Amino acid sequence: MDTNKKVPKDPGRSLWAVAGRLPLVGMVTAAALAIAPFAGFLNRNREEASFADIWLYAGLYAGALVAVVAAISLVFGRRVGSRWSLLLGWCAFALFWYRDVKSFADGSFLKQVLPAQGPVVWIVATSTILVLVARLSRRSWFPTAAMCFAVTIVVVPLGQYSWFSVSSGDISSMSSSAGPAVVLEHRPDIYFLLLDGFGRQDVLDALYEIDTGPFVEELRQNGFVVADLGLSAHPMTWLSVAAILDQEYQALPSERGRPPTMARQLALMAGE
After folding, report:
1. 31, 74 in Cβ contact below 8 A?
2. Is 62 exposed, middle or buried (0-12, 13-18, 19+ CB in 10 A)?
3. Fewest Cβ atoms closer than 10 Å to its Cβ: which of 55, 146, 151, 188?
4. Exposure of 89 by Cβ count < 10 A (0-12 exposed, 13-18 middle, 19+ buried)?
5. CA nearest 104: which of 83, 124, 127, 79?
6. Mean pLDDT over the full length of the chain
7. Who wins on pLDDT, 68 or 179?
8. CA 153/CA 47 separation, integer angstroms
9. pLDDT at residue 246, rounded to an integer
C-alpha cells in the first residue's frame, strides 16, 4: 500500500477555514461606518439627490475598506482583523466628520483660543476616539456594541429617506390630480422669484464664462431685490459629497466670501 499518496483537499473545508479567519462582526461594522456619511448626506439632500445617484460611491468606499480588513485578517488572524476593522471603520467615518466638528468649534470659545480651531479640534477629537476604540476593542462586548451603533446610524437616515420618498410620491400624485390653476382677476402687489441652485453672477462669469449680468439687472429694474451672497456659490455637483473640508473655495473668485455672522448673512440676503 502506497502511504505517500496525497489525500485531496476538500474545497468546502478550505472555504470554511478562510471564512473562519474573517471577523464578520468587525467587517459589518467597518462597512456600516463607511456608508453612514453617505446615508446622512442622502437624507439631508433628499429633495435633490436620490439613492441611485450615490449608491456606487458608497459601495466602492465600503467595499475597499472591507477588502483591506479581509486582507489583514487573512494575514494576521481574526483577532487582529477585528481590531483593525474598528479602527479603520472609525477613520473612514471621521473623514466626513470634519465639517461638523469645525462648525462646533466655530461656535464655541475655542475660536478665540486656537488659531486653526477647526483642524486642531478635529485632529484631537478623532485621535481621542481612535485611542479609545483601540483600548476597548480588546473587550469581548465592544465589537457587538460598535456594530449596533454603526448599523443604527445607517438605518435611521435611510429609513427617513425612504419615508420621505414614499410621502413625496403620495403628495405628487395628489397634486397631479388636482384641478386647473385659479386665474386671478387682479395682479398681486408682491412677487417673489426664487432661483434654487442658481450660481452667483461673479462665479459663473469667472469659472464658466457665463454672463448673467443682463438677467440680474433686468430683475433689479423690475423692482426685485437680488441678494448676490444669498445665491448658490456653484452649481450642484458631486463636490458636495467630496468637500469634507472647509468649503471657503466656493466663495471664489469674489473676495466677499462667507458672512462672519448669521445676522449679517440674513441682512445680505434681505438686500441690505
Report:
1. no
2. buried
3. 188
4. buried
5. 124
6. 74
7. 68
8. 20
9. 43
Contact predicate 40/100, CB 8 Å: no
Would you put residue 257 in left (φ > 0), alpha (ψ -120 to 50) or beta? left
Sign of the Cα torsion 40, 141, 13, 85 reads positive
Sequence spans of domains, the chain: 20-165, 201-269
Each residue of 27-57: pLDDT tens digit? 999 999 999 999 988 888 877 778 888 889 8
Please check whether residue 79 is in contact with residue 55, taking contact to mean a CB–CB distance below 8 angstroms.
Answer: no
Residues making up the chain, counted from first to last: 272
* Long-range CB contact pairs, 76-82, < 8 A, 24+: 77/21, 78/20, 78/21, 78/22, 78/23, 79/23, 81/21, 81/22, 81/23, 81/26, 82/23, 82/25, 82/26, 82/137, 82/143
Q: What would the grid cell of residue 229 be?
A: 451672497
CA separation for the pair 36, 240 (Å, rounded): 16
| Placement of cell 465600503 in the chain | 62
Question: Sorting pLDDT into bands at 50, 70 and 90, what band is 91?
Answer: very high
Q: Render pLDDT for 199-256 as a digit per residue (tens, 0 to 9).
A: 667 767 777 788 888 888 888 888 777 766 554 444 444 444 444 444 443 444 445 5
pTM of the model: 0.58
What is the reported pLDDT for 141?
A: 92
Residue 226 CA: distances (Å) to CA of 2, 57, 200, 210, 220:
93, 36, 10, 18, 7
